[in-house]
Amino acid sequence: MRFPPAAAAGACYAPRLIGACVNLSHRTVLITGGASGIGLALAQRLHARGCTVIVCGRRADRLAEAAAALPGLFTWVCDLTDPAERALLAVRVVAEHPELDVVIHNAGIQNRLRFDVPGAEWAAMHTEITTNLDAPIHLTQLLLPHLLARPDAAIVNVTSGLAFAPAAFAPVYSATKAALHSFTLSLRLQLRETSVRVLELVPPAVNTDLGGPGLHTFGEPVDAFVDAVLPRFEAGEVEVGYAYSEAGRLAGRAETDALFARINTPR
Ligand SMILES: NC(=O)c1ccc[n+]([C@@H]2O[C@H](COP(=O)([O-])OP(=O)(O)OC[C@H]3O[C@@H](n4cnc5c(N)ncnc54)[C@H](OP(=O)(O)O)[C@@H]3O)[C@@H](O)[C@H]2O)c1
């Protein structure tokens, strides 16, 4: 693909700015990791807006709880670290929900690990990379032919404020989120003349069970976070943060260095 010169390309070369408004009502939405935390809060809001919502995750009990609370919710048990399970998910969702037009890549895990002492296991790191990066890229590749045929579609990648200033206690996690942010920018540019909008949700620390219960209790309340960000996508923003991640995504190098120091100061 040849890209036009920057001057002729207009807004697509200012990838964090306002785009066309995205309608998040009465859509058909797949949310990976949608049975807990941020994904569940998104599922609740979109369900209330009249969307058909499909959520997936590894824990059948959490999916059943979500389905009991949200009548009409579709659930799918899968482990997104397995490429075959991603492929099956993509085939089944498109076959059973041909009107699918919004995909939210939300599933993620966070490992706290150290490279300066023995014990960091490659298997855990690899699972983290596969979950946070391989899965959204592969699912995008699998679902794009379908989404490109829809008149109005959106892909939402859930990254993190740590994509912009990493937390050294979660070095692989932070790197996966930086990579997903980078991928999002490229994908948005490549798809700029298609019907598929590419959005990025950049959470700050949010009070969920990410990384294990009790590790994010200092974070922002999940309901306040989700209620604040969804209207911004609907108003046309393509990259949306909240609290410190809003400052982080817009920061210059000096501010990013200050943020890095703040994040990495022991509490
Ligand atoms: N909370 C924060 O402070 C924060 C900050 C920045 C970014 N984020 C991002 O926000 C997203 C949601 O996280 P959260 O905070 O809401 O934590 P969470 O409640 O732990 O949600 C993560 C979800 O991902 C699913 N998941 C994990 N591994 C999976 C796999 N292999 N296959 C399928 N599903 C999988 C989990 O379901 P199962 O365990 O049932 O599979 C879970 O529902 C993540 O991408 C996270 O990195 C969170």
The quaternary structure here is: single chain
Overall pLDDT level: 93
Shape from CA axes? globular
CATH topology: Rossmann fold
CATH superfamily: NAD(P)-binding Rossmann-like Domain
The ligands found in this model are:
NADP nicotinamide-adenine-dinucleotide phosphate
What is the CATH-assigned architecture?
3-Layer(aba) Sandwich
How many domain regions?
1
Counted by DSSP, the helix tally is 9
Report the sheet with the most strands, covering strand number, pairing sense and barrel closure: 7 strands, parallel
Q: Which class of secondary structure composition applies to the elements? A: alpha/beta
Extended strand count: 7
Broad CATH class: Alpha Beta
Cα end-to-end separation:
48 Å
State Rg.
18 Å
Instruction: Please trace the helix and strand order, writing H or E for each element.
Output: HEHEHEHEHEHEHEHH
Beta-strand residue percentage: 5-15%
Low-pLDDT runs: 1-15
Helical fraction equals: 40-55%
